[in-house]
Every structure is written in C-alpha cells, then in structure tokens.
Amino acid sequence: QVQFVESGGGLVQPGGSLRLSCKGSGSMTGFYDMAWYRQRPGRPREWVASITPGGIPKYSDSVDGRFALVRLNANHNTTVYMQMNNLKFEDTAVYYCNGRWRQTDYWGPGTQVTVSS
Questions:
Q1: Residues 102, 44: Cα–Cα separation, whole Å
Q2: How far apart, in whole angstroms, are the C-alpha atoms of residue 68 and residue 97?
Q3: What does the alpha-carbon distance between residue 108 and residue 87 come to, in Å, rounded to a whole number?
Q4: Residue 92, Cα to own-chain centre: how many angstroms?
Q5: CA-CA distance, 68 to 85, in Å (whole number)?
Q6: Cβ(116)–Cβ(18) under 8 Å?
Q7: Rounded to an integer, what distance in angstroms lies between the CA atom of residue 60 and that of residue 4?
Q8: β-sheet bridge partners, residue 70
C-alpha cells in the first residue's frame, strides 16, 4: 500500500519560512516522480514544484527563487522536503504531496499553510 503523509504546515507571518515534509511508504517510492500541489481558497488545485527520482527540481513561476525541493531516499522509500522562504499572503493554501508511478497518482491528505499578519 503506497502512502504519502505531509507535515510541517502552520501559521506564519509574511516574509517568514516553513518547511514541509512528505514521507512516502509502501512500494519503492524512491523511484517515484514527486511533486507538491496546492489549493488556495476558491481556486482549483495547482502545481507548485516537482522533483525527479534523481533529485532534479522544477518550480512554478510563482515560487521559483523562494521555494526549494530536496528528496532523501532510504530503503527504497523517499521523503521530500520543501523549504518555503519569503512567504506571501497568496501562498496560503492546503499543500498536497503527489507521487507518480507509471501514470498513476498517489496523494497525501494535505497540510494547511496560512500566511497572515
């Protein structure tokens, strides 16, 4: 059973930082393409960033230069970290971890990030 669980969300002031984690378990998640998506209030879910099994990241224009992805693989499972710096009001959202293997998507339950003064 493949499973991803996010952690690290919370309340932060504008300009602050948070680090989200996504821990994978089950079937060889170290080989999955991993990504973060977010859903802001009243908007559809959107792609934020992704990282290949080899550790090459890619970012949406809205977070490039502020967010950074790293993944650590151990025992064929992966943990993906997303460091979020210089957070803005518009980064407020539920953040979801996504793992993809051969066109099948697996989602975590999400973690809330609120940027507020």
A1: 24
A2: 14
A3: 22
A4: 14
A5: 8
A6: no
A7: 22
A8: 81
pLDDT in tens, 37-59: 999 999 999 999 999 999 999 99
Q: Which residue has the tokens 């934020």?
A: 48
* Cα–Cα dist 40/33, whole Å: 23
The chain-wide mean pLDDT, for the chain, equals 96
Contact 22, 34 (CB under 8 A): yes
| pLDDT tens track for 59-69 | 999 999 999 99
List the one residue out of 7, 91, 108 whose CA is nearest residue 41: 91
DSSP 27: S
Residue 104: per-residue pLDDT: 94
In this structure, the dihedral spanned by the alpha carbons of residues 55, 56, 60 and 64, taken in order and rounded to 10 degrees, is 90
| CA torsion angle 106 97 64 30 (round to 10) | -70
Q: How many helices (H) and strands (E) does the chain have?
A: 0, 11
95 pLDDT band, cuts 50/70/90, is: very high
